[in-house]
C-alpha cells in the first residue's frame, strides 16, 4: 500500500465538482479523507467521495471546514479504509492541535486480509499529513505516549469492551423508557480498559444526544443503530457526569474533555462535587469506583466538615455508615461503576464488604460486565494474575516466562535506573516507581533526598497532578497516588522494606515502621476500626500489584529486603 497519493482541494462546491469529474475513482472507489479549518478536523471514508463531500456541504458543522485531503490507493478496500479512518481519528485526538468533529459511532478492532501490511503504511500516511500538510504538530511517538491519546474517547474497542458498551446501552435505554433506576458494574483487572469504556460511553451518549438525523452515519459502525431521534429524545435533558476520585487522573481526563466536541471539563466531577450538588443527576459514570471513600479522616479539615455536611444534606443525619458511593447512588438515578476490588490501596477506600456486595447485586440483576482482555501488558499470558499470585499467600507452583515482555530483576538500583533512563530515551514514558516506604521530605524541603540506595539519591514526585508527563519526572520516583490509572511503556519498581519475607513462617509480611503513607495506615475512629498489620498488608500488596502492572512493554524490579529479594527472585 505504499504507493498512495494525497490529493488536496478547497472545500467548495465548484472545486468538489471539478475534482469528482477528474477521475472515476473519485466517485467509485474506497478512499479516506481529512477535512479541516484552522481549529477543527473531520476524518471520513467513502466509496463515493464526491457525493459524500456534497452531503457534508449541507451540514452546518461541516460547512465551516476549508480544505479536503483525500488518501487514494489502488489496493484500498472498505476494511482498510475503516481501519485507516479510525487510526487517523485517534491520532488527531491525541495530537490536540484540532478539535475532532467525528462522532463516536465506533468500530471494533476488526481483523481483515493483509491487515499488517496496510497498518505499516498508515504511519507513512500520518507522516505525509504531518510534514507535507502540517496537520499534526507532534510526532507519532509523542502522540502515542500522551494522555490525550491514551484517554481519548476515539478508541477501537476490543470484543469485551464492545459487548459491555452495547449491553449497557440496551439496558440504559430500556430503563429510561420505563423510568426504572439502575446500577451497572464493569469489572476488570488493571489494564483491561475500564477507563476507556467510561470515557467512550460518555462521548457516545453525548453524540447520540446531539446527532443531526440528516447527517448520514456509516452502517458499518457498530453503534450506528443507536443514533435515532427517539433515543436522542430520551437523552435530551439527561444530566450526566464522570466521577473520578483520584486528583491526578481527574486533571488528565479534564484536559481531554476540554479538547473534545460534545464534552467539557465540567462533566468531570469529584465525589464531593456530586454530594454537594443541589441538582440531582440522571446518570453518573464512576471510574475507579473502588477508590471512593468511606467515612474516614480526609486529607484536610474542611473536607472532613464537608463530608459531614453532605451526609446531613442527603440523608438528614451524619451517620458514619454513609460512604461516597451512597452519595453517588442518592444523587443519580442511574450509575455505571468501573470496579476492581484488587486496586483498593488505602483504608479510606470503600471496604471490601461494600464492593463485594456491589458485585453480587450487579450479578443478580444481570448488570455485571467483566473485562478480561489485557489491553496494557504486551504479554500473551496473564501477567497481572501472575503478579497477584506471586504476592499472595498462595504463590504459583512454577515460574512463568513472559515471552515478548521485558521482565527483569535487579540487585543494583543504579543499574535499574540506568536502564529505565535508556528506555525513556528509546521509547519515552519510562519511570521509576516505589512503594510508600520512604518519607516525603522533599515535599517541604526541595533540596532534601527522599530515597538513598546503592549510592543512588532520588526524590519523590515533585508534582501530584499529571506527574508522569511533567518535566523532569524521569529523574524522580512516582508513588501509587501519581500512577494509578495510567500507562507507562516501562516501569522500574522499587519494593521497599514495607514488605518483607519471613523465612520461618514462609510468608510475605508487612513492616508498619517502614510504611510512611500516613493516610494509608491510620485507624478509623469514626467507625471504631483499628487496622492490624494483616489488614494493611492487603493494601500494600494491592499497591505493589498496581505498580508492577503499569508497564506496557516491560517491568524492572528492585527489592530492598534481602529475604524478600531471594524469595521473589525465583518468580522473576
Give a verbal description of the structure.
It comes from Arthrobacter sulfonylureivorans. This is DUF2075 domain-containing protein. InterPro entries: AAA+_ATPase, GIY-YIG_endonuc, P-loop_NTPase, SLFN_3-like_DNA/RNA_helicase. The model has no long low-confidence stretch (mean pLDDT about 95). The relative contact order is 0.09. The chain has 21 helices and 20 strands. The longest helix is centred in the first third of the chain and has 20 residues, at about 160-180. α1 (about 15-20) runs antiparallel to α2 (about 50-55) and α9 packs across α10. It folds into 3 domains: about 5-145, GIY-YIG endonuclease (3-Layer(aba) Sandwich), CATH 3.40.1440; about 160-370, P-loop containing nucleotide triphosphate hydrolases (Rossmann fold, 3-Layer(aba) Sandwich); about 385-570, 3-Layer(aba) Sandwich (Rossmann fold). By secondary structure, the chain is an alpha/beta fold. The strands form 5 sheets. It has a 6-stranded parallel β-sheet. The chain has a 5-stranded mixed β-sheet with strand order 1-4-2-3-5, sandwiched between helices. The protein has a 5-stranded parallel β-sheet with strand order 12-20-17-13-16. The protein is about 40% helix and about 20% strand.
Task: List its salient traits.
20 strands; alpha/beta; five-stranded mixed sheet; 38% helix; Rossmann fold; GIY-YIG endonuclease; 572 residues
Secondary structure topology:
Elements: E1 5-10, H1 13-22, E2 31-36, E3 40-46, H2 49-57, H3 60-63, E4 67-72, H4 78-95, E5 99-100, H5 115-131, H6 140-144, H7 147-150, H8 159-178, E6 182-188, H9 194-210, H10 229-235, E7 240-243, H11 247-258, E8 268-269, H12 271-276, E9 281-286, H13 301-315, H14 324-331, E10 332-339, H15 352-365, E11 368-371, H16 383-390, E12 406-410, H17 413-426, E13 430-434, E14 451-453, E15 456-458, E16 477-478, H18 480-483, E17 488-495, E18 499-502, E19 507-510, H19 518-521, H20 533-547, E20 551-559, H21 562-569
Parallel strand pairs: 3-5, 6-10, 6-11, 7-8, 7-9, 9-10, 12-20, 13-16, 13-17, 17-20
Antiparallel strand pairs: 1-4, 2-3, 2-4, 14-15, 18-19
Helix pairs in contact: 1-2, 4-5, 9-10
Amino acid at each position: 500500500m505504499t504507493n498512495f497519493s494525497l490529493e488536496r482541494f478547497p472545500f467548495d462546491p465548484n472545486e468538489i465538482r471539478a475534482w469528482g469529474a477528474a477521475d472515476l475513482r473519485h466517485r467509485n472507489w474506497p478512499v479516506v479523507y481529512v477535512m479541516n479549518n484552522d481549529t477543527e478536523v473531520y476524518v471520513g471514508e467513502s466509496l463515493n467521495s464526491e457525493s459524500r463531500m456534497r452531503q457534508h456541504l449541507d451540514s452546518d458543522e461541516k460547512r465551516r471546514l476549508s480544505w479536503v485531503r483525500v488518501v487514494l490507493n489502488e489496493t484500498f478496500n472498505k476494511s482498510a479504509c475503516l481501519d485507516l479512518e479510525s487510526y487517523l481519528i485517534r491520532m488527531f485526538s491525541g495530537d490536540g492541535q484540532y478539535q475532532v468533529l467525528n462522532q463516536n459511532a465506533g468500530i471494533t478492532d476488526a481483523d481483515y486480509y493483509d491487515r499488517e501490511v496496510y497498518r505499516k503504511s498508515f504511519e507513512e500516511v500520518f507522516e505525509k499529513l504531518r510534514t507535507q500538510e502540517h496537520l499534526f504538530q507532534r510526532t507519532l511517538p509523542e502522540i502515542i505516549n500522551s494522555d490525550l491519546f491514551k484517554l481519548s474517547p476515539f478508541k477501537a474497542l476490543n470484543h469485551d469492551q464492545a459487548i459491555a458498551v452495547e449491553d449497557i446501552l440496551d439496558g440504559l435505554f430500556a430503563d429510561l423508557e420505563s423510568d426504572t433506576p439502575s446500577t451497572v458494574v464493569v469489572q476488570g483487572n488493571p489494564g483491561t480498559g475500564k477507563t476507556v469504556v467510561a470515557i467512550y460511553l460518555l462521548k457516545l451518549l453525548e453524540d447520540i444526544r446531539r446527532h443531526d438525523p440528516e447527517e448520514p452515519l456509516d452502517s458499518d459502525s457498530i453503534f450506528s443503530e443507536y443514533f435515532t431521534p427517539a433515543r436522542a429524545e430520551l437523552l435530551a435533558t439527561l444530566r450526566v457526569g464522570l466521577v473520578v476520585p483520584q486528583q491526578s487522573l481527574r486533571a488528565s481526563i479534564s484536559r481531554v474533555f476540554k479538547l473534545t466536541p460534545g464534552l467539557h471539563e465540567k462533566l468531570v466531577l469529584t465525589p464531593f462535587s456530586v454530594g454537594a450538588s443541589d441538582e440531582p443527576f440522571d446518570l453518573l459514570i464512576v471510574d475507579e469506583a473502588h477508590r471512593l471513600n468511606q467515612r474516614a479522616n480526609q486529607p484536610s479539615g474542611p473536607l472532613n466538615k464537608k463530608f459531614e455536611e453532605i451526609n446531613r444534606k442527603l440523608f438528614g443525619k451524619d451517620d458514619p455508615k454513609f460512604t461516597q458511593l451512597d452519595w453517588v447512588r442518592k444523587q443519580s438515578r442511574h450509575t455505571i461503576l468501573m470496579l476492581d476490588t484488587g486496586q483498593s490501596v488505602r483504608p479510606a477506600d470503600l471496604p471490601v464488604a461494600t464492593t463485594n456486595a456491589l458485585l453480587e447485586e450487579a450479578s443478580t440483576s444481570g448488570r455485571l460486565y467483566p473485562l478480561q482482555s489485557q489491553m496494557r501488558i504486551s504479554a500473551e499470558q496473564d501477567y497481572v494474575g501472575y503478579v497477584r499470585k506471586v504476592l499472595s499467600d498462595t504463590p504459583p507452583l512454577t515460574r512463568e516466562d513472559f515471552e515478548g515482555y521485558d521482565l527483569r530483576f535487579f540487585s543494583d538500583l543504579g543499574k535499574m535506573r540506568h536502564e529505565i533512563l535508556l528506555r525513556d530515551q528509546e521509547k519515552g514514558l519510562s519511570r521509576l516507581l516505589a512503594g510508600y516506604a520512604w518519607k516525603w521530605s522533599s515535599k517541604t524541603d526541595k533540596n532534601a533526598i527522599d530515597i538513598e540506595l546503592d549510592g543512588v539519591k532520588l526524590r519523590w514526585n515533585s508534582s501530584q497532578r499529571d506527574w508522569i508527563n511533567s518535566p523532569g519526572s524521569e529523574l524522580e520516583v512516582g508513588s501509587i497516588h501519581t500512577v494509578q490509572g495510567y500507562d507507562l511503556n516501562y516501569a522500574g519498581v522499587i519494593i521497599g522494606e514495607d514488605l518483607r519475607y519471613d523465612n520461618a513462617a514462609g510468608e510475605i509480611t508487612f513492616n508498619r515502621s517502614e510504611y510512611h503513607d500516613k493516610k494509608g495506615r491510620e485507624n478509623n475512629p469514626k467507625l471504631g476500626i483499628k487496622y492490624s498489620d494483616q489488614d494493611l498488608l492487603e493494601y500494600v500488596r494491592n499497591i505493589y500489584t498496581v505498580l508492577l502492572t503499569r508497564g506496557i512493554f516491560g517491568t524492572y524490579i528492585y527489592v530492598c529486603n534481602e529475604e524478600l529479594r531471594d524469595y521473589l527472585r525465583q518468580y522473576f
